[in-house]
Structures are given as structure tokens and as C-alpha cells.
């Protein structure tokens, strides 16, 4: 009796052990969760594309889940820094193209060259990919390179008998004519154009860059030498001062608020990236809003966001992350990027014919991106990548000082030059 | 059955071996205070872990030339460069000046407004409960929501304040509240006062309610007028409460981040950049954590000094 009981107990223990053993092995392989943090989770269009990509990846890798977490753009850099510094980075790394350099400089981003080589991923002609090269290594894949387009309110321009401007002179004249106090209460209700003048230095610089580029100015040259104290930059600063100081743009608003004002018919002309169109479609004045090329040459453009992998994760996880990147860069998903996100995909192999059918202005987006790329425009100045935030803050403050204290743009350019060189030397 | 066989014995007599083994008799009068320390130990350890340890790390970082800090990285060489740069930086002294201005203006206004409203709602009148509710309301509103409300009130293009100023004929053109250094500072100060005065009010009201009515009755019998009763009874009796409250308000002004960051981000031209905003910007904007730690340590020292000064004054007023 005792023996039978013992045998039964042994049998049960063995069975339980076997179950536990298989259970212990199986979940380790199957229940892998990759962490992915992004600020684009709820964005219309591009957020849907990320969702479709994750779904396709999970279907292709049974048992592997992607934990997709949204972090607001305003807190993104801090959150990612904390995650990396704390030793628990996300496996799939999504960063803005102006901030990845600091992470790469700390050795936190995996060198993707061996993975690219192994997978034979052809990145020739991949828009903005050069930006992802850091100290001779490819540390990320560019996910968007864009060119600015101009949204305009056809009714507001027609009321003043104005054609769509194609040069700076035409633009400034149109902006002055369409800036109005409509009800005579002493407060401007309608603006010729709209720029973000509140918030971070990066966005402020992008707004200013519209005028700087058209005047022939650049923050730095191709070798990274600071080139602010030049007649072209002085002209660019003079134009920016005219637009802001003469209240042709509403003051102290965030980028989102300015876009909404344009969508609601309070702004006549607005320069922005491809993301302006979905906002226009939801605005009160959507039937009056149109898109055209910016009246400047070249348009503002540049890299937007990048995808990479954390260098500290295990090799197994790296292989999975690479599969995710490979899927994102596949022709299929690059084609979907054009249709779902209504933006220009960086891949030259993406089939954009479907997007052209769905998005009426798609050719315009392609044209703007190509014009910016041809002119070698990027929002992040060469040679100031690591110090970009500090440089952008400095340039914003000096531009604000020029407007508040009514300073001569020539003197401001000289100050900016000296300060930028000091920042670069740190 | 078995339990009945054990004779009843005193606890100490039943387990002499165990007591000897640990060598700790908490029942002995000379060691009774040990129990207190033992019970406090978890809390002390926890505080050490979450406050003292990060503080030590910050202090250590402030003496290193480090960008993004990681605990698993080897320590960089000791340097005073961060402090040298800090004390020679115009930006730091500007941040000190802005913090000092805010400290004086916001703490002073909160004190006056808080005390005045507390005295008001301490009186008996119809609707007193609702008045008390309205006085305390700003304290209950989450800081970020309050900031968004004020951002729209002072919006340069579409805000209520510009409309009011123009309608009342106080100005002929709109004021760029967040583009003008003085105006931006005023907006930040007003928002902080609105958010901070109810705390003083609530504390003062609690203090007022604890003053015995006999004091006032006796003063009245002695012929003291309302002002004399206020200066000779109310204020001295309230001082212990007000002293602590002012210290807490000061520390709040020192460390407040969200109001300034959301309203102005420290601008324009650093007109609203306090030491806490500067610390954040250097750490997470420019990734200079060694330098940011130095700013943080100096801020901590200033906070401690200010608190000691205020606590000292409170003690004098009490006795």
C-alpha cells in the first residue's frame, strides 16, 4: 500500500516536473515582449501605420509581443534619457532626428551596419539616411524626410485680390494685406501667416529657417563651420524680425495652436510639413484651404524621426528588433507609409501610386521633399548635432532679443556667430 | 492534552535560551528605547534610500565633468569646474535674481492675501461656508490646469486680459504677455500667487480658530480697539503657524517647476528662469548632468539657509 502510494507520488512529481520544465522553457521563448516607446502612438495616419506594422510583426512572430507605450513629445527626451541612463532602455528605439546623436554618442545605439549587411538591405537613395551615420557607423534608419509646403486660405487671399505668392516680396505683401482687425476693437483677429514663437528652440529655429534659407543663409557650412555672420543670414534675420515684430503672425502660441487657427480660417498662409493636411481637413475652414509650394527657395525640409535598437539588450532580442526594423523598411510597409501616413516615405522603392490616388496633393509633398533634399537642407546644422538643443536655445533667445529690444540684425548675427562658436568648442 | 502538561511560566523564564542567543532583552528598562529605534529603522532606511542616496549621488556628480550620468559607469575625476563655471556664469546669477524676486513677491503677496482672506472667512456671516470654499478653491485646482487657464487669460492674441485692458482703455494695443520679459514675469507671479495664497489662508484660518475667545474678550474689557487686538493678540498667537507656513510657501516657490515651465519655459530672455528651471534645462535639455547637479546643490543650500533664517525668526516671535 505504502509502495503504491510512493510510486504514485513519484509519478505525479515526475509529471509535474516535466510539465514545469516544458512550461518553463516554452514561455521563455514564446512570451517575449519587446518594449517600444513612441510619441506618435495616437497621431492620425502615422500612428495607424505603426499599429499596422506592430500587428504584422506579431503575426509573423507568434508569442512575441510588442509593448507599445506613448510618451508625449514634450517629455520624450527626458523619458528616453532616464530609461537609457537607468539601464532599462526600450528594445526598439524611436527618436527624433535631432536628439539621437546624444544617445549614439553615449554608445547606447547598436551599430546597424552588420545587420544591414547580413540582411542585404539596400539603403541607396534612402532619403535622409546620411543623417543616421554617427562616427562612421549607421546607428539608425531614417523614417521620414520631408519638405515644407504652404497651406493657404483661398478665400482670404481672393478677398484682397491676391494671387498665391511665389516669392518673398509677394508673400510679405500678402501677409500685410491679410493681417486685420476685423471688428475694430483694436485686437488683430486675422493674421497673414502663423509661426510658433512659444516653446522650444528647435521649433523656433525651424520657423525662422523659412526666411533664412530663402535669403541664402545657413547656420553652418558643409564642414560644420559656423556661418551666421554673413549678409545672407542678416537678410534672413531681418525678414524674421519683420514678420514677428509687425504682428503678421499671432504671438506666443504653440505649433498646435497655430495650426488650429489656420485650419479654422484665422490665418491666410502657413508653412508646415506633410502633417498639416490632416489638421486642415478637420478645421472649420477646410473647404477654403489649399496647398501649394512655399514661396521660398529652397523650402525648409529635413529629417524627422529615426528607428534604431538599444545596444545593451541581448542578442536574441536584437535579432527580433532587427526583424521589426526590416519589416518597417520593407517595400510593402514603405508603400503603406505613403497611403496610411499620407507622407513621403524615405524608401525610393516605395510604390506611391496608391497614395497619389488617395491624397490629392501627394505630388506636391514629393516635390517639396525632393527640392529640400536637392538643396541639402536639414534642420539640424552640420557640426552642431550634439549641441543642437543648446545652440537652438541660444539662437532663439538672440532672435527674441532682436525683436524685443529692436536690435540691428547685423549686430545680432555677429552675437549669434560668437555664441555658436563658443558652444561648438565646448 | 499536551498543552495541559506545560506549566504556566513567565515569558522570560520560558525562553531563556532564545534571549541569550540574541543578547537583546527589550524588556529591560535600560534598553526599552531600543524598541523605538528598531521600529523607526525601516522608515529611516527608506528615507535614506530615496532621499539621502540620490542627494549623495547629486553631490558626487556635481564634482565631475559628466554629460549623461549612469551609475554603472566609472567615476570621472574630481573637479571643481562645474562650480567655477556656475559662479562665473551670468545665467546663474540671473536665475538667482529671478528666484529671489519671485520669492519675495510671491511669498509676500501670498502672506498678505492668505491672512486677509482667513480673517475675512473667520467672521460669522451668511454664505461663510461658500466663501471658505472659494478661498480654498485655487489650492484644489491641479497646477497644470491652473496654468493652462492663466495661459489663455493672458494669451497675447486672443486672451481675456488684452481685451479687458483695451476695453477699459488701459492700453491702446495688445500686450505681448509672454514676449515681454516684465509682462511674462508678472504673469508667472500672478499665477503663483493665485495658486499659493489659499494654503496660507487655510493654515491661518486653522490658527485663528484655535485662539481662545477669552483673549479677545479680555482685550475688549481693557479697551483695546480692533487694530490693537489684531496686532497684540492675533498676530503673535498666529506666528508659530504663520512662520511654518511661510517657510513652506518659500520652499514651494523655490522648487516650483510646472507653473513656470508650462507658462513661459523660463523665457523670454531668461526673465522667468529660476534655479529649478535652470537645473532641469541643463540636465535634460543640454544633458549636462554634472553642471545641473551643481546648480541643484547650490539651490539646496540656499533653501536650507532660507528655511533656517525663517525658523529662527519664528522662534523669536514665539518666545
TrEMBL record, chain A:
<dbReference type="Pfam" id="PF01547">
    <property type="entry name" value="SBP_bac_1"/>
</dbReference>
<dbReference type="GO" id="GO:0042597">
    <property type="term" value="C:periplasmic space"/>
</dbReference>
<dbReference type="InterPro" id="IPR006059">
    <property type="entry name" value="SBP"/>
</dbReference>
<keyword id="KW-0732">Signal</keyword>
<keyword id="KW-0762">Sugar transport</keyword>
<keyword id="KW-0574">Periplasm</keyword>
<feature type="signal peptide">
    <location>
        <begin position="1"/>
        <end position="30"/>
    </location>
</feature>
<dbReference type="InterPro" id="IPR050490">
    <property type="entry name" value="Bact_solute-bd_prot1"/>
</dbReference>
<comment type="similarity">
    <text>Belongs to the bacterial solute-binding protein 1 family.</text>
</comment>
<keyword id="KW-0813">Transport</keyword>
<protein>
    <submittedName>
        <fullName>Multiple sugar transport system substrate-binding protein</fullName>
    </submittedName>
</protein>
Automatic annotation (TrEMBL), chain B:
<keyword id="KW-0812">Transmembrane</keyword>
<feature type="transmembrane region" description="Helical">
    <location>
        <begin position="259"/>
        <end position="278"/>
    </location>
</feature>
<dbReference type="InterPro" id="IPR000515">
    <property type="entry name" value="MetI-like"/>
</dbReference>
<dbReference type="Pfam" id="PF00528">
    <property type="entry name" value="BPD_transp_1"/>
</dbReference>
<feature type="transmembrane region" description="Helical">
    <location>
        <begin position="34"/>
        <end position="56"/>
    </location>
</feature>
<feature type="transmembrane region" description="Helical">
    <location>
        <begin position="92"/>
        <end position="121"/>
    </location>
</feature>
<dbReference type="GO" id="GO:0055085">
    <property type="term" value="P:transmembrane transport"/>
</dbReference>
<feature type="transmembrane region" description="Helical">
    <location>
        <begin position="185"/>
        <end position="208"/>
    </location>
</feature>
<protein>
    <submittedName>
        <fullName>Multiple sugar transport system permease protein</fullName>
    </submittedName>
</protein>
<keyword id="KW-1003">Cell membrane</keyword>
<keyword id="KW-0762">Sugar transport</keyword>
<dbReference type="GO" id="GO:0005886">
    <property type="term" value="C:plasma membrane"/>
</dbReference>
<dbReference type="InterPro" id="IPR035906">
    <property type="entry name" value="MetI-like_sf"/>
</dbReference>
<keyword id="KW-1133">Transmembrane helix</keyword>
<feature type="domain" description="ABC transmembrane type-1">
    <location>
        <begin position="96"/>
        <end position="310"/>
    </location>
</feature>
<feature type="transmembrane region" description="Helical">
    <location>
        <begin position="133"/>
        <end position="154"/>
    </location>
</feature>
<feature type="transmembrane region" description="Helical">
    <location>
        <begin position="233"/>
        <end position="254"/>
    </location>
</feature>
<feature type="transmembrane region" description="Helical">
    <location>
        <begin position="290"/>
        <end position="311"/>
    </location>
</feature>
<feature type="transmembrane region" description="Helical">
    <location>
        <begin position="160"/>
        <end position="178"/>
    </location>
</feature>
<keyword id="KW-0813">Transport</keyword>
<comment type="similarity">
    <text>Belongs to the binding-protein-dependent transport system permease family.</text>
</comment>
<keyword id="KW-0472">Membrane</keyword>
Amino acid at each position: 500500500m505504502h509502495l503504491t502510494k510512493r510510486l504514485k507520488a513519484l509519478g505525479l512529481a515526475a509529471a509535474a516536473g516535466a510539465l514545469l520544465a516544458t512550461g518553463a522553457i516554452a514561455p521563455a521563448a514564446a512570451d517575449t515582449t519587446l518594449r517600444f516607446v513612441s510619441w506618435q502612438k495616437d497621431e492620425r495616419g502615422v500612428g495607424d501605420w505603426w499599429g499596422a506594422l506592430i500587428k504584422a510583426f506579431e503575426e509573423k512572430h507568434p508569442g512575441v509581443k510588442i509593448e507599445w507605450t506613448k510618451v508625449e513629445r514634450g517629455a520624450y527626451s527626458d523619458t528616453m534619457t532616464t530609461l537609457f541612463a537607468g539601464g532599462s532602455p526600450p528594445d526598439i528605439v524611436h527618436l527624433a532626428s535631432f536628439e539621437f546623436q546624444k544617445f549614439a554618442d553615449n554608445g547606447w545605439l547598436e551599430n546597424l551596419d552588420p545587420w544591414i549587411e547580413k540582411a542585404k538591405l539596400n539603403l541607396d537613395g534612402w532619403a535622409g539616411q546620411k543623417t543616421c551615420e554617427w562616427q562612421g557607423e549607421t546607428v539608425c534608419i531614417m523614417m521620414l524626410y520631408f519638405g515644407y509646403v504652404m497651406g493657404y486660405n483661398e478665400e482670404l487671399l481672393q478677398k484682397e485680390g491676391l494671387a498665391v505668392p511665389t516669392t518673398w516680396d509677394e508673400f510679405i505683401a500678402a501677409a500685410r494685406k491679410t493681417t486685420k482687425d476685423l471688428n475694430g476693437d483694436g485686437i488683430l483677429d486675422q493674421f497673414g501667416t502663423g509661426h510658433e514663437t512659444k516653446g522650444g528652440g528647435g521649433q523656433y529655429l525651424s520657423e525662422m529657417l523659412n526666411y533664412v534659407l530663402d535669403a541664402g543663409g545657413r547656420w553652418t557650412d558643409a564642414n560644420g563651420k559656423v556661418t551666421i555672420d554673413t549678409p545672407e543670414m542678416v537678410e534672413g534675420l531681418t525678414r524674421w524680425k519683420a514678420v514677428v515684430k509687425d504682428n503678421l503672425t499671432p504671438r506666443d502660441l504653440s505649433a498646435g495652436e497655430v495650426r488650429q487657427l489656420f485650419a479654422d480660417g484665422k490665418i491666410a498662409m502657413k508653412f508646415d510639413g506633410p502633417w498639416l493636411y490632416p489638421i486642415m481637413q478637420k478645421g472649420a475652414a477646410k473647404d477654403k484651404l489649399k496647398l501649394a509650394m512655399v514661396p521660398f527657395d529652397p523650402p525648409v525640409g529635413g529629417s524627422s524621426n529615426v528607428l534604431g535598437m538599444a545596444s545593451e539588450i541581448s542578442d536574441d532580442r536584437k535579432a527580433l528588433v532587427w526583424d521589426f526594423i526590416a519589416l518597417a523598411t520593407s517595400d510593402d510597409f514603405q508603400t503603406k507609409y505613403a497611403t496610411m501616413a499620407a507622407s513621403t516615405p524615405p524608401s525610393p522603392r516605395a510604390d506611391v501610386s496608391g497614395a497619389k490616388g488617395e491624397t490629392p496633393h501627394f505630388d506636391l509633398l514629393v516635390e517639396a521633399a525632393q527640392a529640400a533634399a536637392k538643396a541639402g537642407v536639414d534642420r539640424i546644422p552640420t557640426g552642431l548635432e550634439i549641441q543642437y538643443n543648446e545652440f537652438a536655445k541660444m539662437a532663439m533667445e538672440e532672435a527674441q532679443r532682436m525683436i524685443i529690444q529692436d536690435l540691428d540684425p547685423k549686430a545680432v548675427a555677429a552675437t549669434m556667430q560668437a555664441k555658436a562658436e563658443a558652444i561648438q568648442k565646448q | 492534552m499536551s498543552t495541559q502538561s506545560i506549566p504556566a511560566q513567565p515569558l522570560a523564564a520560558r525562553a531563556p535560551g532564545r534571549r541569550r542567543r540574541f543578547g537583546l532583552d527589550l524588556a529591560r528598562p535600560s534598553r526599552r528605547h531600543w524598541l523605538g529605534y528598531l521600529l523607526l529603522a525601516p522608515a529611516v532606511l527608506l528615507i535614506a534610500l530615496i532621499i539621502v542616496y540620490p542627494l549623495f549621488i547629486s553631490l558626487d556628480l556635481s564634482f565631475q565633468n559628466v554629460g549623461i550620468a549612469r551609475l554603472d559607469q566609472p567615476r570621472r575625476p574630481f573637479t571643481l569646474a562645474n562650480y567655477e563655471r556656475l559662479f562665473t556664469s551670468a545665467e546663474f546669477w540671473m536665475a538667482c535674481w529671478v528666484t529671489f524676486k519671485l520669492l519675495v513677491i510671491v511669498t509676500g503677496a501670498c502672506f498678505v492675501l492668505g491672512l486677509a482672506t482667513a480673517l475675512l472667512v473667520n467672521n460669522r456671516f451668511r454664505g461663510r461656508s461658500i466663501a471658505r470654499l472659494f478661498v480654498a478653491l485655487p489650492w484644489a485646482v491641479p497646477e497644470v490646469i491652473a496654468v493652462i487657464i492663466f495661459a489663455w487669460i493672458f494669451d497675447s492674441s486672443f486672451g481675456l486680459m488684452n481685451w479687458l485692458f483695451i476695453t477699459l482703455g488701459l492700453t491702446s494695443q495688445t500686450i505681448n504677455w509672454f514676449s515681454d520679459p516684465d509682462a511674462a514675469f508678472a504673469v508667472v507671479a500672478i499665477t503663483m500667487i493665485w495658486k499659493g495664497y489659499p494654503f496660507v489662508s487655510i493654515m491661518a484660518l486653522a490658527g485663528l480658530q484655535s485662539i481662545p475667545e477669552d483673549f479677545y474678550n479680555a482685550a475688549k474689557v481693557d479697551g483695546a480697539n480692533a487694530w490693537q487686538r489684531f496686532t497684540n493678540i492675533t498676530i503673535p498667537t498666529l506666528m508659530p503657524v504663520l512662520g511654518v507656513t511661510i517657510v513652506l510657501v518659500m520652499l514651494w516657490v523655490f522648487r516650483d517647476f510646472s507653473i513656470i515651465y508650462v507658462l513661459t519655459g523660463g523665457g523670454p530672455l531668461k526673465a522667468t528662469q529660476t534655479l529649478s528651471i535652470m537645473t532641469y534645462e541643463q540636465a535634460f535639455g543640454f544633458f549636462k548632468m554634472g553642471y545641473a547637479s551643481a546648480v541643484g546643490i547650490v539651490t539646496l543650500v540656499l533653501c536650507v539657509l532660507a528655511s533656517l533664517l525663517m525658523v529662527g525668526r519664528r522662534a523669536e516671535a514665539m518666545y
